[in-house]
């Protein structure tokens, strides 16, 4: 059975957006069972874990003797095994690849830059000076995405694919702002994708892990 790594607990601001959610969702869409290797605090820095994930992040995916990391690569690997995530037509599949990489390369860095400023550096002078430009850049990327999605339900070929899965997880990051929810096109798109039963199962599984850890901490 496939094993993926995930944190046993993260602070509330990160719950529901840690990147193992992407892989859980892809596996749920594909109907592939999996189990989780839940990391204890500090385990990601051990030599043993770095053999699985050199950067000490989550997730990795292990399938027998095969191990891979990076959530984008893992989701593409799962999509290659499932028509639920990738079209069979070669050109349509390439369009799916294009938009999945766009989510990671063209949209996520702008959003993550702003999110990091807000969550980790908000009171620092350099962050206050940098934030307006960071927000403007994030908004420009989101407006470009919204322009593409206007009149479309999904990113390509009139169907849900792994690209939509990835883009939705990216758009969940800036929850400390209304940049996504205030845009009718993007808000509707995220809600449409999040309404999928596979997403709901994946999110519930991730959140259940955190809730179990918090329950243990409460009685310790």
TrEMBL record:
Enzyme Commission number, as recorded: 2.5.1.18
Location of the GST N-terminal domain = 22-86
Q: Name one GO molecular function term.
A: glutathione transferase activity
Which CDD domains does this UniProt record tie to the protein?
Answer: GST_C_8, GST_N_GTT1_like
Q: Would the keyword Transferase turn up in this protein's UniProt record?
A: yes
Superkingdom of this entry's organism? Bacteria
Pfam family membership, one: GST_C
Residue span, GST C-terminal domain: 89-211
Q: Which UniProt keywords apply?
A: Transferase
Report the InterPro entries cross-referenced here.
Glutathione-S-Trfase_C-like, Glutathione-S-Trfase_C_sf, Glutathione_S-Trfase, Glutathione_S-Trfase_N, GST_C, Thioredoxin-like_sf
Give the family, as the similarity comment puts it: Belongs to the GST superfamily.
What's the protein here called?
A: Glutathione S-transferase
């Amino acid at each position: 059975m496939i094993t993926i790594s995930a944190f046993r607990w993260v602070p509330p601001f990160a719950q529901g957006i840690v990147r193992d959610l992407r892989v859980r969702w892809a596996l749920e869409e594909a109907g592939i069972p999996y189990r989780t290797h839940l990391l204890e605090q500090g385990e990601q820095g051990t030599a043993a874990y770095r053999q699985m994930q050199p950067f000490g992040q989550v997730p990795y995916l292990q399938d027998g003797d095969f191990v891979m990391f990076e959530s984008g690569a893992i989701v593409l690997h799962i999509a290659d095994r499932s028509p639920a995530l990738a079209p069979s037509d070669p050109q349509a599949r390439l369009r799916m690849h294009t938009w999945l990489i766009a989510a990671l390369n063209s949209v996520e860095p702008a959003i993550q830059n702003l999110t990091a400023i807000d969550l980790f550096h908000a009171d620092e002078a350099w962050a206050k000076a940098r934030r307006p430009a960071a927000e403007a850049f994030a908004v420009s990327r989101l407006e470009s995405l919204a322009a593409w999605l206007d009149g479309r339900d999904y990113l390509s070929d009139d169907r849900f694919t792994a690209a939509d899965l990835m883009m939705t997880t990216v758009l969940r990051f800036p929850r400390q702002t209304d940049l996504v929810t205030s845009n009718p096109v993007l808000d509707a798109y995220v809600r449409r994708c999040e309404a999928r039963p596979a997403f709901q199962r994946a999110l519930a599984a991730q959140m259940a892990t955190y809730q179990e850890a918090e329950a243990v901490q409460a009685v310790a």
